[in-house]
Amino acid sequence: MASAQAQDFLAVVTKAVANHPSFPNYQAMVASAQSLSSIEKARRMPKVDGVLARVDGKQTLVETQSAWQVGLSASYPLYDAGKQNARDLMAKGDTDREMAVGLNWVESAAQELGATYLKLWETDQSLAEMKKTQLTLERFGELLEGKGNQGEVSPLTKSKVARKRIELANKMIEIRGKKLAASLVWENTKQPNPTQWSLPPAIETVAAGESAALMRSKAEVFKARAEVDFVKSDESLSVNLGASFLQRKYQNISAFQSALSWQINMVYPFYDGGLASSRSQRQVLVLGQKQAEFDALSNQTVLDLNRIRQDLAQSEVLEKKLRNLCELQANLAAQTQKRFDLGRGEALDVVEADLSLMDCRLQNNRQMFDIYSKRNDYLKFSGAYAQAIKGIGK
Fold it and tell me: Which of 79, 110, 121, 245 sits a CA distance of 20 to 30 A from 212?
């Protein structure tokens, strides 16, 4: 069972997908695909046609008077060697395939929106860290200004500190640009930018499923198997029931005459030049091809999931090292500030220490973004996004 954190992140992304302007296209594809089963259900019902015809007696085997006839004719398949059952299964395969094609697009959109959401988180965290450093440098700059007026700090030192503050402001402008780009994408979901965050969970808590690509390939195998049965039914006996009720008006006779008839037609293909068997053999080969494609895709999915696991393990080790480094950098910045307060250090050392701490934390944010992005990819390949999207509206 998926963890609460996984459900929270999936809920955020699926809500964004459901509000995306293109989501109605997916819903239309689903509705169209589901209509295929109705077509096959109709084949199981008797077929009734209205008849209006002019019959020329001289064109029949037994010469009769020409006549007009009007009425109804009906037909019903009594036995078709499993042909209609095969049609039903083929329709199900087509339905599942079309739905998987639409789901594949929405699944990719969910992955992209998940990445956009994470980019908003990363830029938000980075800007918060940079603003904190900016405020520290501003307070330190004011302190240096006072010391400069007293002759304790040289103009060159103040100039260097001011240049560092300008460089930081330029970095913030760059990060704001990235946040704006992500915000423009997120606006398509008709939702405001997040202020509280639900981040992707550890992959161990994600329930296993099938991606849309696997669903599509599986549906193609299912349909190909049904097509084998459908083609083989052409080599077997078929029995149809027919009936008609007609009103005939013969030439030179004023009254209508009723005619009720029924018949049972049995057809068995004794010889067709090997057409049916050739079609059957070909369809068996198609089934083998589709099965091979599904097996290859399944194996590739396993490889992709294993690759993500390995990449995540390495990224998490690196993140832990960065976190420890940032703790050391924070201690160094605090010691540098303390030495300066005691008159034993340089102003630029304090600024460099604060900026180094900020850079370390920004790098750690980027590393966490990389970890969350890999987890976001895992949600697609594991089928978690596909299952969540299929549950929209249920």
Answer: 121
Q: What share of the chain is helix, strand, coil (3-state, %, to 5)?
A: 70, 10, 20
Residues of the chain where predicted confidence (pLDDT) is lower than 50: 1-6, 59-60, 149, 151
pLDDT of amino acid 6: 47
Closest residue by Cα to residue 92 from 241, 233, 7, 219: 219
| pTM listed for this prediction | 0.81
Q: Three-class SS of residue 258?
A: strand
The candidate with the shortest Cα–Cα distance to 228, out of 291, 292, 282, is: 282
Placement of tokens 């304090």 in the chain: 350
Q: What is the CATH topology of the domain spanning 47-79+238-268?
A: Outer membrane efflux proteins (OEP) (2.20.200)
DSSP output for 20-84: STTHHHHHHHHHHHHTHHHHHHHHTSPEEEEEEEEE-GGGSSS----EEEEEEEEEEEEE-TTHH
**373 contacts 115 by C-beta, under 8 angstroms:** yes
Q: Which amino acid is at 313?
A: A
- What would the pLDDT profile of 342-366 be if each residue is shown by its tens digit? 877 787 888 889 899 999 999 999 9
CA pair distance 44, 13, nearest whole angstrom: 43
* Cβ burial 97-122 (10 Å sphere, 16+ → b, else e): bbbbbbbbebbebbbebbbbbbbbbb
- Tell me the pLDDT tens digit for each residue of 159-216: 887 888 899 999 999 999 999 999 999 988 888 888 889 999 889 888 878 999 999 9
Please report the pLDDT score of residue 1 as a whole number: 35
CATH topology of domain 4-45+81-116+186-234+275-390: Outer membrane efflux proteins (OEP) (1.20.1600)
Is residue 369 within 8 Å of 299, Cβ to Cβ? no
Delimit the domains of the chain by residue range. 4-45+81-116+186-234+275-390, 47-79+238-268
